[in-house]
Amino acid sequence: MPDLQLDEQQLALQRAAREFAQREMMPHAGNYDESMDYPWPIIEKAFAQGLMNVFVPQEYDGLGLSHLDVTLIVEQLAYGCSGMATAITANELALSPLTLAGSAEQIRKFTRMLLEKPSVAAYCVTEPDAGSDVAAITTTAKKDGDSYVLNGEKMWITNASVASWYFVLATLDRRLGTKAMVCFVLPSDLSGIAPGKKEKNMGQRCSDTRAVTFKDVQVPAAFRLGEEGDGFKIAMRAFDKSRPMVAALATGVAQCAFDHALRYAQERSAFGKPIFAHQAIAFMLAEVATEIEAARLLTWKAAQLLDQSKRATKEASMAKLFASAAAVKATEHAVQIYGGYGYNREYPVEKLYRDAKIFQIYEGTSQIQKLIISRHLVQ
Ligand SMILES: Cc1cc2nc3c(=O)[nH]c(=O)nc-3n(C[C@H](O)[C@H](O)[C@H](O)COP(=O)(O)OP(=O)(O)OC[C@H]3O[C@@H](n4cnc5c(N)ncnc54)[C@H](O)[C@@H]3O)c2cc1C
Description:
Radius of gyration: 21 Å
Helix content: 40-55%
Number of strands: 10
CATH class of the largest domain: Mainly Alpha
Largest sheet: 4 strands, mixed
Bound molecules: flavin-adenine dinucleotide
Strand content: 15-25%
Oligomer: single chain
CATH architecture of the largest domain: Up-down Bundle
CATH superfamily of the largest domain: Butyryl-CoA Dehydrogenase, subunit A, domain 3
């Protein structure tokens, strides 16, 4: 692990998260994958150990950790179980627009809900007919005196049925495109909000993914983040902060698959020698080890730029693009190295393979990351 730039405090943080992942998450990951139950007991423990909501600024009684610190924690949690880690990290995603654009009163109100007791939040942007093309959302916010009336449907929302509050992007007028977008933070128990059924996903199966419908929901104007027209900008800027976290999640899964595969390759023999002694296997592992190192360094670079208050849109996309591909390749190679055992649920790597794919889809697909990176190449 390249720890060159990590100080004592960061190494201690990384160690604490690693120990938590190995003690509290890994032993239960298989069962949660099978049952698809939401991992509340793990979340309660992560909360008690101070591994959640770490973006909450110190002036609001949070830890106010740096972006680099957060990636260190998140990588280790994903090593333990990326389904559980996604549920935990969704809070940091929802916190990103709140801390970027919220008033002191809004930040205090909604961070307190997360700090008082183990609870989670959700980031509601995607809709059934608008994923990559966020500008095509149709959830409408209609001004009504001192509040807004929200109508529409969100899709694929992580933590939808368990969140105590939502970040929601809507449009004031669909004809005006991104200029007419507005966003809110709002308690999830407002009248007219209904989460749908739990989706049966390929991987990260304990994470709670659902649609959410908003029917004539009265949202006080006090819950609007920023000004009318700022919504799209706020939602997109939050991704600059969250994509390095997704890259860190992917790196954790890749590292876990690599560690399993390296161990197995030395234990398993074929043709009279450990399979690691066959160059085809050793070279697979050499490539994966190199890509994990590169993924981690890209992630740290994006996080460090954010910590220096610099714009990191391109670097965040590069980290997510590269790390998610590295995770898919690392887990696919791990299944291959395990042979028939790799394809079986009694062994850990098939879950990792299923879990890894989502990193190339959520928080902007790999194609969208390439679109963002390519636009920055000609600026
Ligand atoms: C498990 C899970 C959890 C999620 N959690 C959340 C959440 O918490 N909050 C939230 O708001 N959303 C969430 N999402 C939604 C996720 O961000 C979207 O699924 C994703 O952005 C892709 O949108 P889409 O599914 O509509 O695909 P589409 O946008 O329809 O894309 C389909 C395909 O076309 C490609 N494509 C689209 N446009 C272009 C283009 N211009 N150039 C090249 N290729 C293109 C895409 O890359 C993709 O391969 C989640 C999704 C899943 C599956």
